TrEMBL record:
This is DUF305 domain-containing protein. Residues 391-471 form the DUF305 domain. Keywords: Membrane, Signal, Transmembrane, Transmembrane helix. Residues 1-25 form the signal peptide. The chain crosses the membrane at residues 49-68, 95-116, 145-161, 167-185, 238-256, 285-302, 314-336. The lineage of its organism: Bacteria, Pseudomonadati, Pseudomonadota, Alphaproteobacteria, Rhodobacterales. Pfam families: DUF305. The keyword Thylakoid does not apply. Gene3D superfamilies: 1.20.1260.10.
């Protein structure tokens, strides 16, 4: 799988619960990581003192909030929140529809993706379908068609990508499609659940994705090394489990009583917005639907609980509910991984013990762990150098990248059809530019040229994908990349 690595946001501050809690959020780095590796044994988490410290702090916060919520002051607080958010509450459906439509216009503009910037596709018609989905949201009559379009795009994404690592996104996509169907319905008993399905979709997405912090902590090591400010000075092996607890419990909090869920939503909104600055606008696009639904939850005046209301209102429901959610999600995550990849898959620790890296080269995170033997081999395409290699080694890597590009270009340009010859020549030309940009990212330090290198890699890879699709559509053998 080879989509662009997904930006990692910040899961920080559990407002009063996780003291100097950390800042991370969700990671989906399909390209660089060995996604088929087995998750770390759950015993590793269950014996982690910091995991239980985080759980204890969260329970104290939730129980204190529930006690406060049951008091007159708690009721007054909810009334005040209702007054503040009332202008949005009165137009909440308009807000949701505008954001959903805007999201699909944004990914249409990005181009070459299915439903997030991670999920690449060379099919141009997908972008135009996204524009139709956005247009369909204007009218309640056509909203079910837009919902069907969203589900269709997810079917395509699940066909092309690893389903296991898309399950959290899938929950969100199904929730958005369900909202459009319910909002378009004339049956009020159905419509009243439209915001609730959004809440459940985001909650499931956050709780599922948080388990990566426990199952694959190695995936987050390069990010911590490159952006140490995210940890607020916490050691890596404290920060990651505490961040996982924060993300899981705030997702769980979205399903709780009104004050708990609204406070959880406010905290999450601050966190996701904080991620935009270090990770850029693409992160904002990728998280736009989640952020919008979080706003909806914070502004939702609904006080009734439709499912298991009695246990969710009771104080005992807090530890029982959290324990139940952990048991369900952990069992599903570790169990489904065995179903998808088999019970004999090896963990990251076992792979590293054999000298393998946790991941291959990553454009966005070139300083992550890599295997030296691979870097120094005569691999084709040429290897990427660690940043501390000397000038002679860098020059040698540049020379090998250009030599490989030249030979493949000349071979492709010999084709009898001039159109095919052009495409066969341009693919290695673009790949050579990508190889050079990778070397620069691994060895260079100038911010402007590093940013240019990232731009070259992203743009040239999209064009390579389009050219390979063009060849495949004409039954021409596609060169190996």
């Amino acid at each position: 799988m080879s989509p662009v690595p997904r930006n990692l946001g910040a899961v920080a501050l559990l407002t009063g619960a996780l003291a100097p809690a950390a800042a991370t959020a969700h990671v989906k780095w399909f390209a660089p990581y060995i996604v088929g590796a087995a998750p770390a044994p759950i015993e590793r988490t269950l014996t982690d003192t910091w995991f239980w410290t985080g759980i204890a702090l969260v329970l104290v916060f939730f129980l204190a909030t529930r006690l406060f919520e049951r008091s007159r002051a708690g009721a007054a607080t909810l009334d005040a929140m209702d007054r503040i958010t009332n202008p949005l509450w009165l137009r909440l459906d308009d807000f949701v529809r505008i954001v959903i439509a805007g999201f699909f216009v944004a990914i249409f503009s990005v181009g070459g993706v299915y439903l997030t910037p991670d999920l690449k596709t060379p099919a141009e018609w997908v972008s135009w379908l996204q524009l139709l989905i956005a247009a369909g949201i204007v009218s309640r009559r056509t909203m079910p068609l837009s919902a069907a379009g969203i589900i269709f795009l997810w079917v395509l994404a699940l066909r092309d990508y690893d389903p296991f690592h898309l399950l959290d996104y899938l929950a969100l996509g199904v929730a958005v499609a369900a909202y459009l169907v319910l909002e378009a319905s004339d049956r009020e008993e159905w419509r009243r659940h439209r915001f609730e399905v959004l809440r459940w979709g985001v909650a499931i997405a956050l709780m599922w994705s948080s388990l990566e912090k426990f199952a694959y902590p190695e995936w987050f090591y390069p990010l911590v090394e490159e952006k140490p400010f995210l940890t607020f000075g916490l050691p890596r092996d404290i920060f990651i489990p505490m961040a996982g607890v924060a993300e899981f419990t705030m997702g769980f909090g979205l399903l709780a009583t009104p004050l708990v869920r609204r406070l959880s939503a406010i905290a999450l909104f601050v966190i996701f917005n904080a991620a935009v600055w270090p990770f850029g606008r693409v992160d904002l696009i990728g998280h736009a639907l989640i952020m919008a639904i979080i706003v909806v939850i914070a502004a939702d005046h609904t006080r009734e609980l439709h499912f298991w209301g009695w246990i969710r209102r009771a104080l005992i429901g807090v530890p029982v509910g959290l324990a139940g959610a952990l048991a369900i999600f952990v069992t599903a995550y570790w169990g489904l991984h065995g179903v998808f990849y088999g019970s004999d898959a090896r963990t990251m620790a076992e792979l590293q013990a054999d000298g393998r890296a946790t991941h291959s080269y990553s454009v966005e995170h070139p300083h992550g762990p890599q295997v030296l033997e691979t870097l120094l081999s005569d691999a084709d395409p040429p290897p990427v150098l660690p940043i501390d290699f000397d000038a002679e080694a860098v020059a040698d890597a540049y020379a090998r990248s250009m030599a490989g590009m030249h030979d493949e270009m000349m071979e492709g340009l010999q084709h009898d059809d001039p159109d095919v010859a052009f495409v066969l020549g341009m693919i290695p030309h673009h790949q050579g530019a990508i190889d050079m940009a990778r070397i620069q990212l691994a060895a260079g330090t100038d911010p402007e040229t590093r940013e240019l290198s990232r731009h070259i890699i992203a743009e040239q890879q999209l064009e390579i994908d389009a050219m390979r699709a063009w060849l495949a559509a004409r039954g021409i053998e596609v060169p190996e990349s």
